[in-house]
Design a protein that fits this description.
Blueprint (H helix, E strand, L loop, with lengths): L3 H7 L13 H8 L7 E8 L9 E9 L2 E5 L8 E4 L4 E4 L1 E6 L22 H9 L3 E6 L4 H11 L7 E8 L12 H13 L4 E4 L5 H13 L4 E3 L17 E4 L3 H4 L7 H14 L2 E2 L3 H12 L2 H4 L9 H9 L2 H4 L3 H23 L19 H12 L4 H7 L2 H7 L16 E4 L13 E6 L2 E4 H18 L14
Parallel strand pairs: 1-4, 1-5, 6-7, 7-8, 8-9, 9-10, 10-11, 11-12
Antiparallel strand pairs: 1-2, 2-3, 5-13, 13-14, 14-15
Helix pairs in contact: 2-17, 3-17, 5-6, 8-13, 9-13, 14-15
């Protein structure tokens, strides 16, 4: 079975869009959440997520000019007070594998023609903010994502910090293709010149081009994340070269095993450990894929599906290739891969290979923001402690991205990307869902505002369900 097609086909999702028109941007402005204020959070239990991670109980934390000003220090004058009695404060969550929706032209092209579908960036970024996801790593970045990031930086939109990786593939497909070492090196240099911060390698690269891409990225001080190219099957050890810094899916290792044994899991962990290669398992993605090979009821019954644009709902429910192309042999293989990946993550964790949380959001049924909480629960199911799971979505991603001096822990001087929870996630990882409010770069959004925005988005989407222009099959006609 061609497992490489699972994620290759999901590349279609990287370029999808949601349409404009919603009052959420106005709602944010009306509520005043885009203004910088000085806040004091009183009586809060702080889970700092530093390496020591000593919980600070009944603390007072001051946020000033979008940064953490003090913890149990002097309270300035003229502040807004948030009484957080019996609540818990953690760093904002980081999703290390996303594919964000943005403007796109689905129809035929000609000079001067722009997009045919336009995104409401605030609608889309709401899905992250409502779930306390304050930083994301876009793994198939294009110029529109720079625009989205700039909208957020200019405070026209409230949304997460966005890191951008440039995807390089081989073969005869579209996009950024390199089939020789020379082309691979030049493509890396172009990505660097255009402002991309990381390189993502993909399945179709041949061995020599892959090695050239990774080496050129090192010369340009760009970390490399991605797939293990199919050309390495049977010779996996050769893929672990210097500067191959992170594997984008546990599935990439599942494809390298013929018997999905514990011995293979331990062997893969040893290879990664020796090379300094981290892992983003994206367990929730493979679990959703497995679910869809059996039935689409799981997607239909997702409580958060109502926040997904009708065009995407149409694709997931009526043009779902995981379900349409299924057969008993494929179902059995994917189910066995799901089981193996839990064992794989446990082996990596026991080998002390750093694991970071990512979701591959945008794959059918993997909903932006919401899915990161699913991933944390699956990591705990795989054997991580609740503290290790939280570290995988806070401190460790910040370290890998090279911005741990700015985010990832609750410390004085760092940006105020914070989540206020009603219950302790160290006791139960599902408590990351009990969000009372979110600080995004020092901007406070309480539960009431989040719920209003989600309701507005739900109404907008429900009013468009079933309309012809939101039929995925007819997207090129509109």
């Amino acid at each position: 079975m061609a497992h490489q097609n699972y994620y290759y086909k999901s590349l279609l999702l990287f370029i999808l869009t949601i349409l404009s028109g919603c009052s959420n941007s106005k709602l944010l402005s009306n509520e005043g959440v885009l203004k910088n204020e000085t806040y004091v959070i009183k009586n809060v239990n702080i889970i700092p997520m530093t390496a020591e991670n000593t919980v600070i109980k009944n603390a007072t934390l001051v946020i000033k000019e979008n940064k953490i000003f003090s913890i149990n220090g002097t309270i300035p004058d003229d502040v807004k007070i948030i009484d957080a009695n019996n609540k818990w404060l953690i760093p904002g969550l980081i999703d290390m594998h996303v594919h964000n929706l943005a403007d796109i032209n689905f129809a035929s092209n000609y000079p001067t023609k722009g997009a045919t579908l336009f995104s409401d960036t605030q609608d889309f970024m709401l899905l992250y903010i409502a779930n306390g996801v304050t930083t994301v790593f876009e793994l198939s970045a294009r110029v529109e994502h720079f625009g989205q990031r700039n909208e957020i930086i200019k405070r026209k939109v409230i949304g997460p910090r966005i890191a951008l990786a440039f995807l390089i593939d081989g073969g005869n497909g579209s996009g950024n293709i390199a089939n020789t070492p020379e082309d691979g090196r030049q493509t890396v240099r172009m990505a660097k010149a255009q402002g991309y911060e990381f390189i993502k390698v993909y399945s179709g690269l041949n061995i020599e081009t892959y090695k050239a891409v990774v080496d050129e990225a090192l010369k340009n001080q760009m970390k490399v994340v991605g797939h293990i190219p199919n050309a390495f099957r049977g010779r996996l050890e050769e893929a672990f070269v210097p500067n191959f810094d992170m594997i984008a899916h546990a599935e990439e290792l599942s494809k390298q095993s013929t018997n999905l044994s514990n011995e293979d899991a331990q062997r893969f962990a040893k290879l990664a450990k020796e090379n300094g290669t981290w892992l983003t398992p994206t367990l929730t993605t493979m679990e959703k894929i497995a679910e869809q090979t059996h039935s689409l009821d799981g997607i239909r019954n997702l409580p958060s599906l109502k926040y997904v644009h009708p065009l995407m709902q149409s694709k997931w429910l009526y043009y779902n290739h995981y379900n349409n192309e299924t057969d008993p042999k494929r179902i059995a293989r994917i189910d066995s891969m799901v089981d193996f990946q839990f064992r794989l993550v446990n082996a990596f964790n026991e080998a002390k290979v750093p694991i970071v949380a990512g979701t591959d959001s945008g794959v059918s049924g993997v909903i932006w923001g919401f899915s990161l909480h699913d991933e944390l629960e699956l990591l705990v199911k795989s054997g991580l402690t609740t503290e290790e799971a939280l570290a995988s979505a806070t401190r460790l991603p910040a370290v890998w991205l090279g911005i741990n001096d700015k985010i990832g822990t609750i410390e004085v001087g760092k940006y105020a990307d914070l989540i206020l929870l009603d219950a302790n996630p160290l006791h139960d990882i599902s408590n990351t869902r009990t969000i009372s409010g979110v600080f995004v770069n020092g901007q406070w959004i309480n539960r009431k505002v989040i719920d209003k925005m989600l309701l507005s988005l739900e109404k907008k989407n429900s009013g468009n369900l079933g309309k012809e222009q939101y039929d995925w099959k007819k997207r090129k006609e509109h």
